[in-house]
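Tutorial, part two.
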Amino acid sequence: MSLEKLLKLNIDYPKSREVIDAISDGAHVVQVEGLAVAAKAWFLAGAYSALRRTMLFLTYTQEQAERIAEDLPHYGISKDQVLFLPPSDALIYEEGSPDFSVIGERLASLHALVSGKRGIVVAPVNAALRRTMPPNILLRAYASVKVGDEIDLDKFVELLVSMGYERADIVERHGEFSRRGGLIDVYASNEDDPIRIELFGDQVESIRHFDTASQRSVDRIPSALILPVREVLLEHDNAKKAAAGIRKELDAQAKSLRDAGDPDSA
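Running the prediction step on this input gives:
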């Protein structure tokens, strides 16, 4: 059976038709139960093909979400329209480095949505409930470069730092960047491999992926999108408010300890 006939069979199936009609009539949330795991991607692909609008599909577990995201391209949905939103358990006060690749995958999906890209977002419930940065901040918190662009390297570095990137001598892991003359290496959170931007004067001459072990180029790309490495970005005004709030709370706790007769702890 051809893919076209398979999707038409889906759309013509009474239960599928009910869901499609409900969404077409303005329903924002539709609950679907009883589908076998193998049929979920087929069902979702049919609905998306009929409705041609951005959809959020929530599942109970990450394993189910990953399988559906992997299966959707088999039903004619292009890979760049399948947006997987993974859960993230990293907290800003935890010790150690967060998993920047997970953060990058989350932000890539969220950035695509706020930028108006049409697609299917597949996510486990806990991933969708995770708080993240507001859309207006995510819309401007990124760096985009392409071959032929002219950039101010100093301002570009400042932008990377504002997005949570850390300077290093050699880029080896997500969230790091280095600058050597007219070369800047960045291991973007949303990239599998780091990128090397080579400038001639102020103009971008080439953009390449490279291997961290050998530091040799892997391929050339015409452009690159660099997303933040954290889902919480403290802009100047917000940082001042946060610092003031922390100071107020510390002063209150210190006063409480002194009143309780424990000035040493205060």
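The longest helix spans residues 236-259. In part three we will examine how such features are distributed along the chain.
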